[in-house]
Amino acid sequence: MKTISDIPRNLNKDNINETIEAYKLLLADIPLKIEESNLLALLNRLKRGQIGSGPWKNVSIFEAANRIMTDLVILFGVKKIINGEYPDLNIFTDFEVELGNENRNDHDIISYANDKVLIAEAFNVAPSFFNVKKSKSVKKLLTSKLTADHLILFCNADSHDRTKLNDNIEIIKVDIVL
């Protein structure tokens, strides 16, 4: 796989590990050092300069970081369900996902099984921004056109300490290991 378009958007036990490894390969070309002559030039480069490599080459370094970190939450979060870490979700085995800023589906993650529907939103944020992102995602889940049996928020494990929002929305905290 050479580009983000080669990464499968339908994930299951047969392809989740291969998909994560392929995504990691896309990350391998991203330079780990960014230098500029002064602080303003560095900040401008981070906010406006294209990253030029990785899965999201044609966006700013800042935007690429946001997309990549959320993609990793999605990939590793779906893997947690596939691996059986959430017994109440074991019936769900195939997941349709959106990566980056794709907007083809109503939600970042959708799965159908035995007349049941799982919908999920995913994000990776600093703890200081968790409540803002959570509120936006919860609203999207609660106002969905889909009638879902399971509403899930996938987020980075270091974003907060909660494990549940209410009886209707479960939080899956995801550790990212590269």
Q: Please, how many helices?
A: 4
Mean pLDDT: 93
- The end-to-end span amounts to 18 Å
Which range does the strand content fall in? 15-25%
What does the overall shape look like? globular
Q: Structural class per helix/strand content?
A: alpha/beta
Helix content: 25-40%
Q: Reading side by side through the largest sheet, how are the strands ordered?
A: 1-2-3-4-5-6
In angstroms, what is the radius of gyration? 17 Å
Sheet with the most strands, sense and barrel status: 6 strands, mixed
- Give the topology string: H per helix, E per strand: EHHHEEEHEE
* Spans where pLDDT lies below 50 across 5 or more residues: none
Tell me how many strands there are. 6
Domain tally = 1
Polypeptide structure, described:
The chain is of the alpha/beta class and 178 residues long. It has one domain (4-174). The protein has four helices and six strands. A six-stranded mixed beta sheet has the order 1-2-3-4-5-6. The model has no long low-confidence stretch (mean pLDDT 93).
List keywords for this structure.
single chain; 178 residues; alpha/beta; 6-stranded mixed sheet; 6 strands; 17% strand
Blueprint (SSEs and pairs):
Blueprint: E1 10-11, H1 16-27, H2 39-48, H3 61-82, E2 95-97, E3 109-113, E4 116-123, H4 130-142, E5 150-156, E6 169-174
Parallel strand pairs: 4-5, 5-6
Antiparallel strand pairs: 1-2, 2-3, 3-4
In short:
The protein has 178 residues and is of the alpha/beta class.
